[in-house]
Every structure is written in C-alpha cells, then in structure tokens.
UniProtKB/TrEMBL annotation:
Family according to the record: Belongs to the major facilitator superfamily. Proton-dependent oligopeptide transporter (POT/PTR) (TC 2.A.17) family.
Keywords tagged on the record: Membrane, Transmembrane, Transmembrane helix
Gene3D superfamilies: MFS general substrate transporter like domains
Keyword field contains Membrane: yes
Chain segments annotated as transmembrane: 20-38, 103-129, 149-170, 182-202, 328-350, 370-391, 411-432, 452-475, 499-523
Cell location: Membrane
Membrane topology: Multi-pass membrane protein
InterPro entries: MFS_trans_sf, POT_fam
SUPFAM superfamilies for the chain: MFS general substrate transporter (SSF103473)
Designated name of the protein: Protein NRT1/ PTR FAMILY 1.2-like isoform X3
The keyword 4Fe-4S is annotated on this UniProt entry: no
Length: 542
C-alpha cells in the first residue's frame, strides 16, 4: 500500500505514512463501536454479516491484526485509469497531481474497509466461541475452547503470512489490478460461505451493554455529589443474587452512584426504578477496575507506535539487495513476515520448551506473570528501534560511499537480510506485550467486562496510530529547514531515518520507566485462565 500511494498517487513518505496511520486508527477503533452495536442492538451474527459485506466492498489483504486492507472500491482505483493521476509523460511537463475527487475515492475505500473490520473483528472470536457451547454441560468444552482459540490465532497468523508473501508477490509481479482483485474475490467467497452456513449457527440474544453502564455510573455520581456517605452497607444498592459487597474506598466519589436515596428508588424485585438515578455496587466496581488498569494500558501504546512504522523498513528493503538466490529476491513488502514467524516460534518455544524446562528445574510450576511479560515486551521493542537505527546508519553510509546520495532508487551493496533482526525483535516484543496485555486485562477485570478486555488492545493501537502521526509530522517539520533535509525525507539517502529510529527508542526507554512507576502504583495482580473466562462469558450470553 505504501508503494501504491507513493507511485500511483505521488504522495511523499510523510503524507503516505500519515494516511496509513489514520486508516489504522479508524480500523482499530471501529471494532469497539462494532462491539457496542453487536452486544446491544444487532447481535454478533448480523454484525459480522454486515461487516463482511463492507469488507467485500473493500477487502484486499490482512495485517498483523487481520484487518481488511483493500476493496472492490480500491481495486477500481487500479482498474479505472481516471480514478488516479495519469502517468508522467517524458516531455518535461510537470506531473499532474491527485485531484480532490480521486483522493476522496481513495479515502472512501479506506473508510469502507475500516467499517467492515469494525463488524468482523469485534464479534468473530466471541461468535465462534458461542458455537462450541451447546448448553449440554460437556466436560470437554474447556479443552474444545482452548483448541478453538489456538486455531483461531494460528489461522490469523497464517493469513498474515499469505498476505505478506503470496498477495505481495502478486502485486509486485503482476501489478495492482491482479494484486487487488484476487483478495476481493476471496473475500466474496468468504462472505458467501458465512451466509450459506447461517441455519447452522448458534445466535445468542442481544444483551445489555457495559459501556452504557459506565456512563450511568458517572452521571448518577455527579447527580448525587451532594449526598453524604452512608454508615450501613444496606444503604447501597446491590445486584440481585450478589453478596452485599461494600464499595471499595478507592475512587470513593463514584460510590455515590449506588447510594439509595429513597426506598421507592428500588422496585419490589430489587431492580432500580431508574438506572439513571441509581446504580449497583457491581456497576461502580466495574468502572473502578477499568480506571485502575488504564495507566498500565497506556504503557502499551509506545510499542504499537514502534510496530506501526511500516513504510520506513519498506523503503530500506527496496534500496538493499534482497536476493536469496540469483533468480529469486524477496519482495520488499514481504519482510514483515519475519516478524510473524518470530512471534510464532517464540510463543511455541516459550510455552512448550522454556516454561516446562524451568518448571522441571524448579520442581514446581513456573510462569511469568502477564505484567512482567508486558515489561519485557517494552524493553525488547526499545532494542528493536536501536538495532533498526544501527542498520540504517550503516546502510546510509554505504549508499553515500557508492555515490547514491541523490539517487534513492539506487541499489546499495548491502544485504536486506539484516532487516530480519529488527523484524524478529518486533515479533518477540509483540509476543510478550500483546499476549501478556490480553491476559492481564482478562485477569484484572470482572467477568462481565470480558468484551472490554478484548477491546482495550485494539483501542491502544488506534491511539498509537494517531500519536505516531503526530510524532512523524513533528519530526518532519522540526528537522528540516533551509538547505537541510528532513529526517524522514522521501529520499532515503538524504534523510536520517536512523535518527528517527533512535528518537523512538528514547521515547520507549522513558515509557519503560513510566511502566515501572505504574506497576509500583498498581500493586499486586492476579492470574486467571483466559479460556475459562471466555467460556463464562459464553455462558452469560446464553
């Protein structure tokens, strides 16, 4: 996509990367909206179905988060010559720039695929889990669920590898028409098969939304701000069937949302007469739990910023020797596959080799806490940026030595296989951080907030994309001047991409210090089995 925008739409590297940042932000944020729609209004089946339709209108390939990246609309921009700027002629005239209508069509295609991702990503995992729970108290259901999760994520990784190898190869060798058209056809077949299997699906009923519950707590707490705290636990409103839990003292102001002002505020069946005037203790504690994990959640944003720097390694690979043999070279867009391969291998080694070996040596079960893995992920991500900067520093020096300062298309006599190192480090950082973060959210948040736990990672990626755009724009603006090239110049040999990498490494180092402070303030954490949590959520749906 970077090459498509730079070559066909003549965007510079900063504009290209910022557009992809905004696209990524929308694609990672809309699944949260999709979760609200699925849980409160349409249900998961219809949400996935509508998302599949939008995705067919806009689907080309997947990334590490398995979100659609292209579309029939995007395919049309490659098929219809007038949908993009005409090729530059050789008569010396200036190349025509992208018109407003052409640019809007491109952005419209991005918007459609983001909406499609919002429908599919928000519900596909939970909807799949629903299919395994027949309500028959199957003693093997936890094992079945664990197997389902394993295959789900394995196939997500497989789809990314296919995208970064097969699809990229088609785009590189056969052009954009074929490269965008083949995935669009595959998405059509996927959506068709999903609808054809409709009679066989278990379709849970729509349930109440936890997001609305949070808003109710805040509104009611503000309404009751003049109330005094009661001395008796019976003056607090509790959920039917729950124990009479006393609200915690942390964030005490929110406790006013569950204070019973008048007996008539509670119906004879124990339910609040108006949920916008009285909340339960359980609602209040759920919001407190979310607020408590937010500082640690914010520490993962920096890793996502580092992971989102996809365009710069692409230009690096394009300028280096990518040959494996004399007759075959790796497409520049395929180097991201090494990150996924490293992630997969590391997860296998960690779970099947390192932990069993450590447990055997210690004589007891050994497992790193999720919060520890999150910290390791931040450290490895920092090292990845440092190594990326070193490789780029060496590559640029070689390019200048070869006289390629003004020729960004020239081939530097340096193997692109060096880029495998930072890609592998990124994969290990992703394995530690993303998996650790997901386990942390599931273990620290109440069972009723499992949908929130699954949405937090995507929300962090959305925020990271926006912040990455701010950082990139600032670096471009403040590092260039009269006679001075920007760090992130479109001419990779004139720019200083290594300075930009090292700046990100410095920010990541500060983020690691911030993470340690957040851990100290948070205190002890707990661990639970995510599979059991997901099964409990599935039971709640039924």
């Amino acid at each position: 996509m970077t090459f498509y925008l730079m070559r066909e739409y003549r965007m510079d590297i900063t504009t290209t990367q910022n557009l992809l940042f905004f696209w990524s932000a929308a694609t990672n944020f809309l699944p949260i909206v999709g979760a609200v729609v699925a849980d409160s209004y349409l249900g998961r089946f219809l949400t996935i179905g509508l998302g599949s339709i939008f995705s067919f209108m806009v689907t080309v390939k997947s990334t590490t988060e398995a979100w659609p990246m292209g579309t029939v609309v995007l395919w049309l921009t490659a098929m219809i010559p007038r949908a993009r700027p005409p090729p530059c002629n050789q008569s010396g005239q200036a190349c025509k720039s992208t018109t407003t209508s052409q640019y809007m069509l491109l952005v419209f295609s991005f918007l459609l695929m983001s909406i499609g991702a919002g429908g599919i990503r928000s519900s596909s995992l939970a909807f799949g889990a629903n299919q395994l729970d027949k309500g028959d108290n199957n003693p093997n259901k936890y094992k079945m669920m664990e197997s389902f999760f394993t295959w789900y994520y394995t196939l997500c990784v497989a789809s990314v590898l296919i995208a970064l190898t097969g699809i990229v190869y088609l785009q590189d060798r056969l052009g954009w028409k074929v490269g965008f058209g083949v995935p669009a056809i595959l998405m059509f077949l996927s959506a068709l098969s999903f609808y054809l299997a409709s009679p066989f699906y278990i379709k849970p009923k729509v349930r109440s939304n936890v997001f609305a519950s949070f808003i109710q707590v805040i509104v009611v707490a503000c309404k009751n701000r003049e109330l005094h705290y009661p001395n008796q636990n019976s003056d607090y409103h509790h959920k039917n069937g729950s124990g009479h839990q006393v609200p915690t003292e942390k964030l005490r102001f929110l406790n006013k949302a569950c204070i019973i002002k008048r007996p008539e505020d509670v119906k004879p069946n124990g339910v609040a007469a108006n949920p916008w005037n009285l909340c339960t203790v359980e609602q209040v504690e759920e919001l407190k739990a979310l607020i408590r994990v937010l500082p640690l959640w914010s520490t993962g944003i920096m890793i996502s910023i580092n992971m989102s720097q996809s365009s710069f390694p692409l230009l690096q690979a394009q300028s280096m020797d990518r040959h494996l043999t004399k007759g075959f070279e790796i497409p520049a867009g395929s180097f991201g596959m090494f990150m996924m391969i490293a992630l997969t291998i590391w997860v296998f080694l960690y779970d099947r080799v390192m932990l069993p070996l450590a447990s055997k040596i210690k004589g007891r079960p050994v497992r790193l806490k999720p919060i520890v893995r999150m910290g390791i992920g931040i450290f490895v991500s920092c090292m990845s940026m440092v190594v990326s900067g070193i490789i780029e520093h060496v590559r640029r020096r070689k390019a200048i030595y070869q006289g390629l300062l003004n020729n960004s298309q020239g081939l530097v006599e340096m193997s692109a296989l060096w880029l495998i190192i930072p890609n592998c480090l990124n994969g290990i950082a992703e394995a530690f951080s993303s998996i650790g973060s997901t386990e942390f959210y599931y273990s620290e948040l109440p069972r009723s907030m499992s949908s929130i736990a699954s949405a937090l990672l995507g929300l962090g990626m959305a925020v990271a994309s926006l912040l990455a755009s701010v950082i990139l724009s600032a670096a471009d603006k403040y590092t260039k001047g009269e006679g001075k090239e920007s760090w992130v110049s479109s001419n990779i040999n004139k720019g200083h991409y290594e300075y930009y990498y090292w700046f990100l490494a410095l920010l990541t180092a500060f983020n690691l210090i911030y993470f340690v402070a957040c851990c100290w303030h948070y205190g002890t954490s707990v661990e639970v089995d995510i599979t059991i949590k997901m099964m409990e959520l599935s039971d709640d749906d039924d």
